[in-house]
Amino acid sequence: MQTGAIDLASIPGPMDLQATLESGQTFRWSRLDGRTYEDPAPSGGDAWYRTVHDGEVIEVRQTAAALEWRSTFDATETLSRRLRLDDDLGSILEEVPGDEVVARAVERFAGMRLVREPFWETLVSFILSAQMRVERIHQLVETLATTYGDPVEWRGETLYSFPSSTALAEQSERDLRDLGVGYRAPYLRETAAMIAAEAVSPAAVASSPYETARETLTSLVGVGPKVADCVLLFSLGFAEPVPLDTWIRSAIEEHFPEAAAGSYDDTSRAIRDRFGPHPGYTQTYVFHHLRTTDRAEVGRGD
DNA sequence: CTCCAGGGAGCCT
DNA sequence: AGGCTCCATGGA
To answer: Which residues of A261-292 are buried (b: 16+ CB within 10 A; e: fewer)?
Structure first.
């Protein structure tokens, strides 16, 4: 086991590990204290989080002065990349618009960073996310790993990597359904086969202009504009996507009604203009704020 | 019991 | 292009 610490003073801008990992951007980190995303500890806690990255175990927690990690390898670079520790979040948040809901969201979760999670597991997570609650997505992603992933031994425990596209493509639709993924089973299977066959290259998508990238991803089965936006935002580092889910749509209707009309693309473009130079960041703050707030209190500043 | 969840595919016009 | 219906499953 190796251990290390990333000094918070070395990270440009604020850092909030809990908000970053529990805001529905990623479903591959588990809290070691047994709490779930739906029943989190009070913010400011120092819980350990764990994932398996490319066969390596990484555990991380935030203390007063650092991000502390322990791992099967030197996790510094991987953590920095996955949690976007290089983002100058102080400057980014200064450029977020001052609208009531947005400002309240930033006030609550300043330090929440976008993530840059591995492409395949992000794609699978958001294919499963259709009509599914956040905590349930997390459970299903864990179940997929324990069922089809490769075992990794860690301090007397057996953990599991996320299964490859090939491993999932080999499963029958029936077996996938039996895990509880419901009607998404064929989406998962067919997209796994397409990725295994390299029908879509993550690297090529990542280097494309935003609209082209989104168009390419929607060629995958079970991937429409919303899921594509999530993958581009939470895995491939795009700044523009504003995934229009039920929460954001209702927020747009209430607070930005002039942007609510028209197609997904129309609304997407209109709200991007209102969300400042980092629309994806703005969206993620608003989403997390809404999802963790009673409807009546949204926009209120306590 | 009903309603809904980080939507998308298939079909219709 | 845009609208409608159906799609599993579990929790409130």
So the answer is: eeeeeebbebbbebbbebbbbbbbbbbbbbeb
Residue A32 has pLDDT above 50, yes or no: yes
A2-97 maps to which CATH number?
Answer: 3.30.310
Q: How confident is the model at residue A35 (pLDDT cuts 50, 70, 90)?
A: confident
Residue nearest to nucleotide C11 (CA to C1'): A133
Whether the per-residue pLDDT at A67 is higher than 50: the answer is yes
Q: Is the CB of A246 under 7 A from strand C?
A: no
Q: What is the C-alpha to C-alpha distance for residues A172 and A244, in angstroms, rounded to an integer?
A: 31
CATH number for the domain formed by residue range(s) A119-222: 1.10.340.30
Please give the Cα distance from A224 to A129 (Å, whole number): 12
**Distance in angstroms: CA A261, C1' C12:** 31
Nearest residue: Cα versus C1' of B6: A245
CB proximity A279–strand B (7 Å threshold): no
DSSP letter at A155 equals T
Q: Taking the domains of chain A in order of start, what are their residue ranges? A: 2-97, 119-222
| C-alpha radius of gyration, chain A, whole number | 19
| pLDDT tens digits, A197-227 | 999 999 999 999 999 999 999 999 999 999 9
- List protein-proximal bases of chain C (any atom < 7 A from a CB): 1-3, 7-11
A222/B13 CA-to-C1' distance in Å? 24
Q: Is the CB of A132 under 7 A from strand C?
A: yes
Chain length of chain A: 302
